[in-house]
Amino acid sequence: MKKQKSEDEVVHLRRKIGLLPAVSFIIGTVVGSGIFVTPKGVLMNSGSVGLSLLVWALCGVLSLFGALCYAELGTAFTKSGGHYTYLLETLGPLPAFLQLWVDVFFSGPASTSYVALAFGRYVVEPFFAPCAAPTGLIKLVSVLGVTIVVAVNCLSVTMASRTQVMLSFTKTVALVLIIVTGITELAKGKTELIQDSFDVKLLTLDKLPLAFYNGLYAYSGWANLNFVTEEVINPNRNIPLAIIFSMVAVTVFYVLVNVAYYTMMSPAELLMSDAVAVTYSNRALPALALVIPILVALSCFGTLNGGFFLSPRMLFVGAREGHSPQLFSMIHIRRRTPLPAVLLQYPLVVLMLTYGELYQLITFTSFVGWFFIALTTLGMLIHRYRFPLHPRPFKVPLAIGVTFTVVCFFIVGLSLYSDPWNTGKSCAFTLTGVPVYYLIVYRFRLPDGLKHICNYCTMHLQILLEVTKQETQTY
After folding, report:
1. What is the pTM (predicted TM-score) of this model?
2. Which residue positions does the secretion signal occupy (predicted)?
């Protein structure tokens, strides 16, 4: 009994995520604002209904290929941290640090902020329809939603996990309602809005990568379970199963939801709507016109919860490896949550909420995100070649890994041509991490006075937050 009590008191992240919570975290972070926001971006850049549906299907297949690659990586390397850990293990510390740098200070807060903005929009707009909702109020509600999510993830891993399961069920109900009403309309013969669906007169090749970016954004989140590998029960079994089941289900849902949209909305009407699901529900489900926006808002809230649960784990692992301040590698002594890493995300997201336009944020962050995903799967292929005997409980077919990597680099390359301004800014921000790495991480060259200040601040914040380093190895 004494030994058991001692083990329970050891401070470390527990394995509490089984198969159902794992599936819920993937579906809960993938199915968020994307399917309710980005249909406009996909249609706008693909030029036709038929091609937009094809883009949705291909994005689902591509995301499944990437998810299978990450299933191999998640079983081959048992550390949490996702992209960061795999880049560190396969390509070395500099690419890993740049991924951490971009995710913590740029793409992570940006992606969370546009999910939060979508949450705020779907909460506020029904009260002002048909007029435009005040932007200030939307942002205020967005900040409130982010605050609640941060509180949940600081208080308890179990609470965050159960919240995610509940919200994943809620968003599935929202998708099923949209799909069933759309299929019902098709059965009644309402197909005039999808006739001549492959008219490619408006298609331009320079915009097609942006259509894929918007579609891939809606599928983003399939790699998030790999951020918490050390907290998954039996990861060799549950990670591949959760990834395969989740991504097949999400792809089917997404294609059918977009078909449903086009049964009630013309392409021109869809392009004019900033809240597609609200417009759809007002026409297809007038009796439930207020219910659908609530379900969509809860869906976005679930994505926020999943993001704040998973993304700070990368910062936690990075600090444990010495690539960020040691404070962020600490865990609350009673709640067993990576409290400092979660709290750091909060002011960054609130600051990013004041940034700009929703679709600019998607393009702005997608380039960096997919570039590092492509590097990660390239690292997987290189590692498989260099270390063929390394244990790999789940091994993806080589053709899938090569296809996914090549397509990712191809899309990233085309984006430089399609939107050089935003992708150029993304590249510039990424490269700012190089001098930081060599000046602070590679060789710790801070002046002694600044080191003393950092140590002093770390000690007092550790006392204030009641956190300490984990006391046992979990990988």
Report:
1. 0.83
2. none
